[in-house]
Each structure stands twice: as structure tokens, then as C-alpha cells.
Amino acid sequence: MPNSTRWSGGSANCPEPSLPAPIRPAPPRAEIEWRPSRWPMAMLAAMALLAPLAVLASELPPTAAWPLALAALAHGILLLRREARRPGCVCVFGGDGRVWLDGAAVDRAWLRWRGPLAFLECRDGRGRVRRLAWWPDTLPPARRRELRLAAPGPRAARRGSSMAP
What we know:
Layout lengths: L29 E5 L3 H20 L4 H23 L4 E5 L5 E3 L2 E2 L1 E8 L2 E7 L5 E6 L6 H10 L15
Antiparallel strand pairs: 1-2, 2-3, 3-4, 5-6, 6-7
């Protein structure tokens, strides 16, 4: 076509096809079960056994070391039992930033990640602070990815003044 120009206006008169309105996908939602992990309980058991040995290995006189060692053992067992008896709960993370614990909405939910560990800190309806930690034995990789997608994003830091007053 020797007579055609490179920029032909022949298609300029064609009307644009009408496109449907874009469909917005629903925000991701995750329902994650929390239960006490065996890993922190194993660490608490080890510390409960090693704390009395550390007290006895110190240079305390035996009259002070033995009662302190027994107190350290009793406290370690108490912490272990308390952690083992914590009731499980269901956390629902809406993709819009809202979080529910056992069906009740919570305020100021803050999810932090430390490698494969996830830590949730929030206030329930009564104003009490709730802290939950998911360890790798309670949160498999597929559920971890689901939680990362549905959890609220990190909060931006406040911008302070750039100069001293």
C-alpha cells in the first residue's frame, strides 16, 4: 500500500465499546484458630527444671538456696499449667481491617510478625488487653499466608516536626 500513511485516521471514527464497570474483589477474610503451642510449653518446662539447679549452683548458703530453688520450681510449674490451660479461640480477620475474637469485635488490633511467628495484641470489649502468639506448630504455612493477606496492614508512623521548636 504505497499511498497509505503511517498514521491513518480511518479507525478514529469507530465508537469505543462500552465496558462493564470494574468488579472489585471482596477483601480477603481469614478465620484462624488459636490454641496454646507445645513449643513455649516445652521451653517453660525446661526453665522450670533448670531454674532450681541454677539457684543451687549459685553461692547462696544452703539455708537460703533450697527454699528459693523450691519456689522457683513451683513458680515454673504454675506458669506451665497456666499456659497449658489457656482456652483456644477463633480469630476472624476481615480484609477491611476489622478483627473479631470469638465473635466479639476488638479494638486496635495489632499483628506483628517475627519470621514464622505471628503476635496479635488487641483490646476486647471490656477493655482488657489480649495477647496471642501463633507458633509454627499451630499455624501451618498455608494458614500463615492466608493470615498475612487478610490481616490489617502496618500502621504508618506519625510524622513529627522536622525541626526543633
